[in-house]
Amino acid sequence: MAEQSRGAGSPARYGFTDDRAEEHLRAAGWWTDTGPAREALDILVALSRSADPDLALRSLDRIRETDEQGWPALTAALRDNRTLRGRLVGVLGTSSALGDFLVGHPGEWTRLAADKCTDADCYADTMLDAVREDGEIRTGAPAENALRTAYRGLLLEIAGTDLGHLVEGKLDRPRYADVAQQLTLLAEAALVTGLEIAQAEQAPKGLGDTRLAVIAMGKCGGRELNYVSDVDVIFVGEGDLQLATRLASTMMRIVGKACFEVDAALRPEGKQGALVRTLEGHTAYYAKWARTWEFQALLKARPVAGDADLGNQYAEMVTSMVWSAAERENFVADVQQMRRRVEGHVPSELAERELKLGRGGLRDVEFAVQLLQLVHGRADPNLRSPSTVEALAALGSGGYVGRSDAAELEMSYEFLRTVEHRLQLRRLRRTHLFPDFNDSDELRVLGRAIGIRPEMARGEGEILLVEFRRHNQRIRRLHEKLFYRPLLQSVASVSTEDLRLTTKQAAQRLAALGYAAPDGALQHIRALTSGVSRRAAIQKALLPVLLDLLADTPDPDGGLLAYRKVSEALEETPWYLRVLRDEGAVVERLASLLGTSKLVPDLLVRAPEVLQLLGDPARLTGRTPAEVAKSLRATVRRQPGLNAAVAAARSLRRHEILRVAAADLLGLLDVREVCEALSSVWVAVLQSALSAAIRKRCAELGGEAAKIAVIGMGRLGGAELGYGSDADVLFVCEPAEGVSDGDAVRYASSVAETVRKMLGAPSADPPLQVDADLRPEGRGGPLVRTLDSYRAYYARWGEVWETQALLRARFVAGDADLGERFIEMIDPIRYPDGGLDASRAREVRRMKARVDTERMPRGADPTLHTKLGRGGLADVEWTVQLFQLRHAFEVPDLRTTSTPRALAALAEAGLAEPEDTASLTEAWLLATRVRNAAMLVRGKAVDQVPSSGRDLAAVARILGQSADDDPGEFLDSYRRTTRRAHAVVERLFYEA
């Protein structure tokens, strides 16, 4: 029976589920014993497309019962007039309240047959005509009833235009913003009419010198009203304030009974304050007492009724205050706190369904947009729209919000507002509560009301629920991204005056901030902000903050120049300015880097992806050296040839040097971690380049003639490389089976030379010099030797300095087995049984004395030279290595290539006092840090501590001094630390 009832001859075919549907259809003459009447087919199809066919049919049946004489005309119009059919059926299938209105007011359906009112004057004229009688404005209940009917009839017209396309798809679909604006114009006309009635009641003989202006606030001020909204207003009066107050309260009562509630709670002091104040009273209150949220509300203030001149004066007065409100102390934090407080008032059991106040709701969009407006709108009048949608579009086109973010936020906002409209239309009641997620009937009707149609696997309600959650989550994500953007607080802290300086004032301001060449800084600013492009707009928003941030760095002028160079180099990089705009931490850290280091901007233009890491310290420092090395080797291995492999290795090394440098400058890595990371990436580059060179040579020869191993020496061997360090290495080979030593050496030499040349080719990056000068016979000896050749050389010809150099030897690249056998071969040489004898120890001391005398650069200050100076790196390392040569045979912990670990082992073994090794360790770490810092500051390798100027200030800042500290104190501290270490060296190295 159920299946039969849904057959071709059943009302169910048209979406009706009501048991009385057929009865209603027969009464209307649209159904016969054989099924639908032919002349009613278009009507039935229209009903089936409505949000709730049963509701629409019941309402039509009620209209038929109450207006039998007009029914034939309505039936004919429904059959012949597509516009009327779409609008009327759309309204009746969505709104029971408007259905009640049509039942109670026969003939009002004709309003939907053609377009009528679309502007404020038309709405006002229609309402005023309705409340007039014999040319006079009526008062009391007759006026209220006439106003109510006129208002509801005009609301019917707006709803018909809004909903008609759902039923008749060929009708125009109005934009959400157009519907909201029509509802606002209607509300304004109701206020105008209500004020006329109030005047007729309270001052029938005229107002005299009394003036009253009605200022719209909230959604009415923003021209974005719902079908059922409170209309927030503020009253401004002049003259007889008692009469003005009676007019205001009477208007509120009349409009409240006839149309909608009029709420004046946003006035100064809220409900406890005077309903009407003078312009001077408002001005004094806002200047002295107003809180942050009140300025946020005033953003939408707009005169809509009453005395236009007085209303405009009020608007001009509040404009200057609104657009300087962001300068108030804790402004951004206050707005953010207000949003959290509003959200906290939502009952937990309703939070997920709250369209307006809940997480991901309408308030999330409005608060984020308003905060961005108030912060950036001080300098950009394009942002000063009271409309949320218009302001959001302006924020997007102006570059303050990403285009995609603005588009997504607007789409989701309009979706929720449309859902809100349809919910309120149902019974014309004020509600912001999404239906219960388990109420399938309500969800289905609401889904159809906003235009959702079923799919193969899902019905309208299920699709609606998915869409609601998707838009809700998107709004919350973007709200948190924009509303809690750290940059907002920084921009807000820049005064409005500073955002609008003349050229002369700007130069004075820059000079006061500490820019040594303000005219040059102005040229950079003009270059970055000239034109009307989106890029220039974003720069205009960023630069006030950036200039202040750079002013706190050691070199503001150099930082601004670097910022311009980076910006120009990356102007075609789509995400560059977006990251700076959306990630406040990135701007702060970038300013710190650019105003401190010359190396960072040079690397940044060639490795811009590192910029994206600045906002997340965990990502900036999160990769271990082993992970980095593994990734680099894997990437290089995939390259098709030697040139591509070396280029990839260089690129990845550049990325890693910049990443490490940024983390170092920001204080996120200590000096040992920096040295380990730089050494690890150097080793990975060597490994990758060697593998690529071997593959190329094997392809040329048809096989591998020898195994090759690379032995790290010096700082590479100790994993103590700095930013500008060369890679000291030895190359060792072993012939393949059937290959002579000579052929093996020639093969390995060609590979080694290829690696050196490819890596050492000129580059803008820090140098990649592979230095093999520590090999037997130095530069005059062969580049590569066999393992046996090394063994024979060291046994017969090895000198003390070569033995000392081998203390830092470790395998770093190539054949691991060969490398390990080389290390096993040299262990007895560098850790001689019985230790270094007295004569060879004296030779080490003589070498040290000669180095101190001969290699110190002419004119260098020996107290400030990080490598060869007193208490510097060489002092500490020579001392450690002498002890290793003498005692490592009996103290296994001394058999390490690491200087700090060897110092710790000396103290642990009792070979030196802990205080002495602590002093040496402190000096070594300090000299290493200063050497690295000087490289970062100057962009080139230097061993001398800067003795004055901005370079000294920058180095001191990197090492922990504040901007207020005297850099000279850092120099004193450096000299004091190295002087103590030098005294220990004199005692341990020369006297022990």
TrEMBL record:
UniProt-listed Enzyme Commission number(s): 2.7.7.89, 2.7.7.42
Chain residue ranges for the region called Adenylyl removase: 1-487
GO MF annotation list: [glutamate-ammonia-ligase] adenylyltransferase activity; [glutamine synthetase]-adenylyl-L-tyrosine phosphorylase activity; ATP binding; ligase activity; magnesium ion binding
PANTHER family: BIFUNCTIONAL GLUTAMINE SYNTHETASE ADENYLYLTRANSFERASE_ADENYLYL-REMOVING ENZYME, GLUTAMINE SYNTHETASE ADENYLYLTRANSFERASE
Reaction it catalyzes: [glutamine synthetase]-O(4)-(5'-adenylyl)-L-tyrosine + phosphate = [glutamine synthetase]-L-tyrosine + ADP; [glutamine synthetase]-L-tyrosine + ATP = [glutamine synthetase]-O(4)-(5'-adenylyl)-L-tyrosine + diphosphate
Domain spans labelled Glutamate-ammonia ligase adenylyltransferase repeated: 88-315, 588-823
Record protein name field: Bifunctional glutamine synthetase adenylyltransferase/adenylyl-removing enzyme
Assigned GO CC terms: cytosol
GO biological process, one term: regulation of glutamine family amino acid metabolic process
Statement: the UniProt record of this protein carries the keyword Nucleotide-binding: yes
Ranges where the record places region Adenylyl transferase: 495-992
NCBIfam families: PRK14109.1
InterPro entries: GlnE, GlnE_rpt_dom, NT_sf, PII_UdlTrfase/GS_AdlTrfase
